[in-house]
Amino acid sequence: MEPRPPAEPAARSRQHRALAATLGGALGGAALAWFAAQHIESPADAAARTAPPKPSPILVPIEQRVLASTIVTRGTARFGLPQKIALAPSALKPSPGLVASLPQRNAAFDEGQVLMTVSGRPVFVLRGALPAYRDLQPGVAGEDVRQLQHALKRLGFDPGADDGHYDARTAAAVRRWYVAKQWEPFGPTREQLVALSAAERDWAEAYKASETARSAAGAAALAVDAAQAAADHGLRAAEAELAAKRAEAARWQAGGGATESMLDAERAKAAHADSAAAAEVATQTAERALVVLDPRQPESARAAADAKLQLAQAAARRTHVEGELALQAAQRDAQLAAGQIALAEASLRAARLDGQKAVQAALDAQRLAELESRLGAQRSARLASELAALQARIGVQVPADEIAFIPALPVRVEEVAVQVGASASGALLSVTDNQLAVDAALALDAAARVKPGMPVAIDEQDLGIQARGVIAEVAGTPGTRGADGYHVHVEVRVTESQARIEGHSLRLTIPVQSTGGAVLAVPLSALSLAADGRSHVQVPADGNGNTLRPVVVRPGLAADGYVEITPLDGTLAAGQLVAVGNRRPEKETP
Amino acid sequence: MRHAHLFGSLLAALACNVIAGPPPGTGTEEFGLNPKQLVEAVEKTEGLIAACMRAQGFEYIAADFNTVRRGMAADKSLPGMSEKQFVAKHGFGLATLYTGEAPQLAKGYNPARIGLGEQNVRVYTRLAPADQVAYNRALLGEHGGATFAVALEAEDFSGTGGCTHQAVAQVFQPAQLRAGYYNPKDALINKDPRMKAALARYASEMRSQGFSYAHPDEVEPDIRRRLAAISANGTLTPEQMSPAQRTALKDLQDYERRAAAKNFELTERLIDPVADKIEEEMFSRKAQ
Q1: Mean pLDDT (whole number) for B227-243
Q2: Quick one: which of A227, A287, B32, B271 is 20 to 30 A from B287 by CA?
Q3: From B10, which residue of chain A is nearest by alpha-carbon distance?
Q4: Triad A53, A59, A61: Cα angle to 5°
Q5: CB contact at 8 A, A521 and A531
Q6: CA A401 to CA B6: how far, in whole Å?
Q7: How many helices (H) does chain A have, and how many strands (E)?
């Protein structure tokens, strides 16, 4: 700025102030004008500003599309249902063995393959519904044997007749199977051989005893005959003795008279002898009296007289006694004769009884011998049968712990429950079949719309999984197989899968209803309900779409935000516009 | 002329301040939302999460605002313990309370579980193990990202994934999904020279303690990153970690406690008073 002369500073200052005031006034006026322009508006402007915006419908085209109502849920894929593998204890082995080798998890096994080894022996996988519960050996029969025969046949080893009997042909097939798998067939155990030897010995002894008993029975029969003969002989002897006694008695009676007369005779003899002795005593008494009365008689004569008297008296007593004895002897003889007959009769009876007893004893002995013979024969036969059975069982056999029957093959190992070296008892593994399935749970209302056989799209985007399946089973009641009480278990059988999906959680999309083909469809928001209860859509009445006219439609299946429509008055076509709402000022977003 | 400019500027500033109110996005809630906007955003996001989860075949009940709010409030909070006590004992509760479990299965402190809501926790616990993994992958993403409530509280959606990320991407602005996003209000405050001076002092004092942080908001994300590196994005439980990982986790826990305590102290002493002052000056006059 140029310097000005100092004489005019006051005037210039006034000019500046005037200019500043003018400028300030102008600026203030402009600001006020601007402010007024911003805030002062006419009632018409205010009405126009506050008036609702002109309706501006949002129009979308009617589409021709297939509508499908789907149920989306989740499920976890698995291989069949896990089943535990436990080995039945074998009676052919003293104790459960030790696990020598185990399969890897997810390893697959088909029929005839060795699942694991236990104490150097294999555990084969065979197909069969009945679990192995006993040792299969020659001589046994049953459904498990039939399962084994079927398995052998499938594996190419002909077991003979399909009869459920483990016979020599079955054993031979088992032998060929083991050898083909490079395992030694399980032959007879030491215990079985010892038992066989003992059975042979027992049978030999029993046979010997049986033969001995049979001989004894034969001898007993002869002994019965001998006893019968002896009895007959004894009886006949007794009868002869009796007859002899009777004859003798008769003869004695006939020769000597009756017994009473014999006794009378003896009495008479005794009386006579007594009388004679008494006469002698009387004589001697008289003579002694003569001697005693005769004084001349010497003393010796008296003594002699006394002695004679005494002798006579003694003789008299002896005669009396003899008479008595003779009488008694006679009586005794009479009694003896009667007794001998009775004795002979008794002897006869005794001989009869003895004979009967001896015969009976011989018969009893015979029956006993025959019984022993019969028992001996039976025991011998039984032992022979047992021996034959043992001999039949001596062959190739399949211990119960070398076979695992599984209903469906192939299987894959789901879980290994033990380690190498552990005792092979209890559950060792769990396996599943090879059929992939997905377990899911649906809410009660959704489950009611799902039926077996429905197709299912299976996917998991994050894992890049795409698969297909069908509904295999819908549980009849909620709360089963892991589902809670408000959900129903659903099993989906996987029919097509390019990737390994087991163990993964997967999305299951189940189309439960479909239009079948392409139909006219509009967004749900295009459909409205009129006062008369009919559904309609709004279509532009003119070219610019400012006015709308309703078209009555019948709504169909709704899915994915669209609804199928069928026009009831007028026509609608794909591509034709319908209103889904009105434009509004942009809403402020966060 | 100078006077005229000055006058005009004053007039214009007066007019703008009186008429327009605070700039947009400078609300008092997270991401600069006002309370109403926050409620709307939360409910819209939760609805979108539920729809996304349904499409994945999972049941998810959209959490209401109060539930999400409780999850947000549970951050660095335990019953009977002030935030200061919590920080002193557990730091940010990241490495110190790390279990490696899914949030739904957490027994103790876990804001994520609270923010998900009890119904969703029950839904999760009823699932099979494989479905639980898939559920959280669908909800939180491949690497088990933050739940909506936790991310909202941290004003950091960069760690979200899965349906949560899809939902917030539809509700919030793209810029708000980026790591290091500052809402307009905080950005304005950070630009203030007084705040810059306070942050310089903060950085200096943190450095003197061996921590290299220039802003309080850098500490927690850094520990989160370190924990993710040790725990393979939260997929390892401490029992599953190698000895070296366990040692690193223990070191990180010690570091977290020290860093959080110092951060808390400096924030209270240096940052908060300045921020409060600036905020007061900036937003004391409300819009018409």
Answers
A1: 89
A2: B271
A3: A31
A4: 180
A5: no
A6: 104
A7: 8, 22
- Closest residue in B to A510 (Cα) is B57
Contacts of B7 in chain A (CB under 8 A): 24, 27
| For range A461-480, the mean pLDDT | 90
pLDDT at residue number A255:
63
Phi, psi (deg, nearest 5) at residue B132:
-65, -40
β partners of residue A384: none
Closest CA–CA distance from residue B196 to any residue of chain A (Å): 27
- Residue whose structure tokens are 């490696």: B100
Q: Hey, what long-range contacts does A467-470 have (CB within 8 A, 24 or more apart)? A: A467/A494, A467/A496, A467/A497, A467/A498, A467/A499, A467/A501, A467/A506, A468/A494, A468/A495, A468/A496, A468/A497, A469/A438, A469/A493, A469/A494, A469/A495, A469/A496, A469/A508, A470/A495
Is the peptide bond prior to A410 cis by the omega test (within 30 degrees of 0)? Answer: yes
Q: Note the helical H segments in chain B.
A: 2-20, 35-55, 65-73, 83-90, 111-116, 118-125, 129-140, 148-154, 162-171, 184-191, 193-208, 219-230, 243-266, 272-283
Give the pair of three-digit tokens for residue B281: 């000056």
* pLDDT tens readout for residues A201-243: 999 999 998 888 888 888 888 888 888 888 888 888 888 888 8
The Cα–Cα gap between A214 and B230 comes to 96
Q: Which of A96-100, A167-171, A245-249 has the lowest mean pLDDT?
A: A245-249
Contacts of A349 (CB under 8 A, 6+ apart): A238
Residue of B nearest to A71 (CA): B57
User: What are A331-334's contacts with CB under 8 Å, separation 24+?
Assistant: A331/A263, A333/A262, A334/A259, A334/A262, A334/A263
Q: Which of B37, B58, B132 sits opposite A590 (nearest CB)?
A: B37
Note whether A503 contacts B176, CB cutoff 8 Å.
Answer: no
Residue whose entry in the numeric block shows the structure tokens 């009611």: A448
Residue type (1 letter), A389: A
Give dist(CA A581, CA A584) in Å, integer.
9
Residue A142 confidence class, pLDDT cut points 50, 70, 90 = very high
Structure tokens at A23: 């400028």
Across the beta sheet with A83-86, what order do the strands follow? A83-86, A427-433, A411-416, A108-109
Residues of A in contact with B37 (CB under 8 A): 588, 590
- Per the document, the length of chain A is 590
Nearest-CA distance B91 → chain A (Å): 32
Q: Say if B128 is an interface residue toward chain A (CB within 8 Å).
A: yes
DSSP symbol at A586:
P
Residue A68 contacts residue A513 (beta carbons within 8 Å): yes
Per-residue confidence (pLDDT) for residue B6, from 0 to 100: 41
pLDDT digits (tens, 9 = 90+) for A509-567: 998 888 888 999 999 999 998 888 889 999 988 777 678 888 999 998 888 789 999 99
Q: What tokens were used for B211?
A: 């921590």
Q: Can you point out the beta strands (E) in A184-253?
A: none
Q: Is A494 helix (H, G, I), strand (E, B) or coil?
A: strand
Whether A590 contacts B27, CB under 8 Å: no
pLDDT one-digit tens code per residue, A387-427: 888 887 788 999 999 999 998 888 889 889 999 999 998 88
- Whether the per-residue pLDDT at A347 is higher than 90: the answer is no
State the DSSP H helix or E strand holding residue A43, giving kind and residue range, or none if neither: helix A43-50
- Cβ distance A462 to B142 less than 8 Å, yes or no, reads yes
Threshold 0.80, pTM exceeds: no
CB A472 within 8 A of CB A493: yes
